[in-house]
Amino acid sequence: MAAKEIPGYAYGDKQLATAPYTLKDLEALKATVLFTDKDAKWLRISRKVLEPHAEEILDTWYGFVGSTPHLLHYFSNDKGKVDSNYLARVRARFIQWIYDTADAKYDQSWLDYQYEIGIRHHRLGKNKTDNAKAVEHIPFRYVVALTYPVTATLKPFLERSTYSPEEVNAMHQAWIKSVLMQTILWSYPYTKQGDF
C-alpha cells in the first residue's frame, strides 16, 4: 500500500510542522544508542524479510493490545466501546511504519514525522487525524513500555529468513536501536519546555 493511500499518513508531507529537534540532535542520539550505518543497512535488509509477514506481525501486536484491557482502553470511547474504524486506520499506518523504520533516511522529513507521531499519541493531536472518539491521551509510560513487545516479537519473523543467526541478531539489534530512538523523539510533546 502506498503511503499516500493511507488515511492520515503524512511522512514526507510538506505541511507537517518542523520538528523542534535537529539533524545534529539526531546524530548525537544515534551515537548515544550506538546506531551506525551498519544498523541502517540491516534495517533495509530486514524489510525484505518482514514485508511478506506484515499482516501477521500486526496480528501479533494487535493481539497483544486487544488482550490487554488497559492498552485497548486508548482505542475506546469514554463508555469503553472500541472504535473499530480507528483501530483499522491505525493498523494501516502501523504497517507503513514497519516499512518506514526499515527504509528510514534519517533526514529532516523523517524527524518531522517522528514529531508528528509523538503529537498523535499526546492530547495535542490524539484522535484528530482519524476524527476518532477514543480516549484523548496515551500516557507516555505506555509509549515507552511498548518498545519491548514491539521489538521482541519481531525476532521470530526475522528468524524465518535464510539469514544466519548472527545476521538475524544484527537486524534485530538495529530494530531495537531504531525503535528506541523513535520513542525518544516521540517524547517531545510530553516534556516541559527545555527538558527534552
TrEMBL record:
Top-level division of the source organism's lineage: Bacteria
Q: Provide the Globin-sensor domain boundaries.
A: 24-194
Alphabetical list of InterPro entries matching this protein: Globin-like_sf, Globin-sensor_dom, Globin/Proto, Protoglobin
Q: Which CDD domains match?
A: Pgbs (cd12124)
User: TM spans, by residue?
Assistant: none
Instruction: Enumerate the Pfam families for this protein.
Output: Protoglobin
Q: Which residues does UniProt assign to the signal peptide?
A: none
Its name, as the record gives it, is Protogloblin ApPgb
